[in-house]
Design goal:
By secondary structure, this protein is mainly α. It is 84% helix and 0% strand.
Length: 108
C-alpha cells in the first residue's frame, strides 16, 4: 500500500514537472523568436522579417496550447483564416449584405 501511494505521488510529480517544462520551453521559443526578429531587423536582413513574425506567431500559439491544450487550435485557424485575403473578406461581406438585404426587402 505504501508503494502504491509513493508511485502515485511520483507519477503526479513527474506529470507536473513535464507540463511545467513544456510550458517553459515554449516560453523560451517565444524569446528566441523575438530576439531573432530584432537581430534580423537591426542587421538589415529584411527578407527574414516575414518568417520571423510567423515564427513568433507560431511560438505564441505553441505557448497558449501548452497551457490550455489543443482545443485552441480551432481559434488559431479562425484568426489566421480571417485576414488571409482581402478579397475573401470582401466577398463574404458582399454575400452577407445580399442575404440580409434580400430578406429585408422580401427578395429571398
Amino acid at each position: 500500500m505504501f508503494n502504491s501511494l509513493l508511485n502515485g505521488i511520483k507519477n503526479a510529480w513527474n506529470g507536473a514537472w513535464s507540463w511545467i517544462g513544456n510550458v517553459f520551453n515554449k516560453y523560451i521559443d517565444i524569446f528566441k523568436s523575438v530576439l531573432k526578429l530584432f537581430t534580423d531587423f537591426f542587421t538589415g536582413k529584411w527578407g527574414n522579417l516575414g518568417k520571423d513574425i510567423q515564427k513568433i506567431w507560431n511560438a505564441l500559439w505553441g505557448f497558449v496550447e501548452s497551457i490550455f491544450g489543443k482545443k485552441v487550435d480551432s481559434i488559431k485557424k479562425g484568426i489566421e483564416g480571417f485576414g488571409n485575403s482581402r478579397f475573401g473578406i470582401h466577398s463574404t461581406q458582399l454575400k452577407l449584405k445580399s442575404v440580409i438585404f434580400g430578406k429585408v426587402c422580401g427578395m429571398v
